[in-house]
Design brief:
Length: about 350
């Protein structure tokens, strides 16, 4: 069950020594003190292990992997070695604002009147998307104070909610009971884990403050996995989330999630293609993908998203042209915003 009240902030690190130190320091600087900061260095080839080892804080737990676990494996290692009752996975290039954990934990400790703490499955917040120099690009979409997990998932897939990997707090036991971070979910393993954990409860809570900062930079991880792979991962995750709703015995919830399938696949497809903008052959690749999977790109969803957030694409393109490229962890965290 984890140590009651203890929050584990887990940081899966790989080849980002300077940024990983920044992430660790932001976790250790939290206003909520009952904290464990767990770092798993995935056999980095740089000085990550040495840099983290130089941090002297009794709350820091450090694992240096001798062999690569991979993105999913490292995420899952962090979860299964967490000691806290609550769990937050922080990207090694992200930053928690000082009150992030305290504010995200508040719905579990002090839920709205008439709501039992056990009925809340997770808490999340909108996130501040920033350039490499720290300048703000935009803030992701918030949601209502309380809503059903199905409403959150459907809103995310429709582009009306903006949860991100590092801005989600859930119970450690719920994430483990849901199967943790699973290889068959690929780079969407975070959605599979927190989505299943949330669906085991009645509500999710949104703290309408940007408590996490993401550094948005053009990189390579996304391009190493094909659009087809991402689409396959999306379909697997979707099917399993629908199955979770079915187990809960809610035909309405199941039907609502089933209706969101096309939005999810379209959103994933659009997101991955946007992440290739500026790379050699990206225009040709986009046209080829439109011909290969018109059912994913030629949809009302894509038209709505480009109409609403097309300015973000232009801003990102300008950013990528004026800043040197640095490796990019994964684009699952951008799911729902389209960028």
């Amino acid at each position: 069950m984890g140590v009651p009240g203890l929050v584990t902030v887990a940081i899966p690190a790989f080849n980002r020594a300077r940024l990983a130190v920044r992430a660790v320091n932001s976790a250790l600087a939290q206003s909520y003190s009952d904290l464990e900061v767990l770092v798993s260095d995935d056999a980095s080839g740089d000085e990550t292990a040495q840099s983290i080892g130089n941090i002297n804080d009794a709350r820091l737990v450090f694992f240096a992997q001798r062999e690569r676990l991979g993105l999913v494996g490292n995420f899952d290692f962090c979860l299964r070695h967490a000691s806290g009752e609550f769990f937050l996975l922080l990207g090694d290039d992200d930053v928690l604002l000082p009150q992030a954990v305290e504010r995200l934990l508040s719905p579990f400790l002090r839920p709205p009147r008439g709501i039992e703490p056990e009925s809340i499955g997770l808490a999340w917040c909108p996130c501040r998307i920033a350039r490499p120099d720290g300048a703000q690009l935009w803030i992701t979409e918030a949601g209502p104070e309380l809503e059903s997990p199905v409403a959150l998932l459907s809103g995310l897939w429709a582009g009306r909610r903006g949860p991100r990997l590092s801005g989600i707090l859930m119970r450690t036991a719920d994430a483990i009971a849901a199967g943790g971070f699973q290889e068959r979910h690929g780079h969407l393993c975070d959605l599979g884990a927190w989505g299943s954990a949330a669906l085991s409860h009645d509500y999710v809570a949104c703290i309408n403050e940007p408590l996490v900062q993401y550094t948005n930079h053009h990189g390579t991880t996304t391009s190493r996995s094909s659009v087809r792979e991402w689409q396959d991962w999306a379909r697997v995750v979707h099917a399993e989330l629908v199955a979770c709703a079915r187990v809960r015995g809610s035909p309405e919830a199941q039907q609502e999630l089933e209706r969101g399938r096309r939005n999810l696949v379209s959103g994933i497809t659009l997101t991955i293609l946007i992440q290739t903008i500026g790379r050699r052959g990206w225009i040709r690749n986009t046209f080829r993908e439109a011909l290969r999977s018109p059912g994913a790109l030629l949809t009302p969803y894509v038209c709505r998203r480009l109409g609403k957030d097309g300015w973000k694409v232009l801003r990102l393109l300008s950013l990528w042209r004026t800043h040197s490229c640095v490796p990019y962890r994964d684009s699952s965290r951008h799911l729902g915003s389209g960028v």
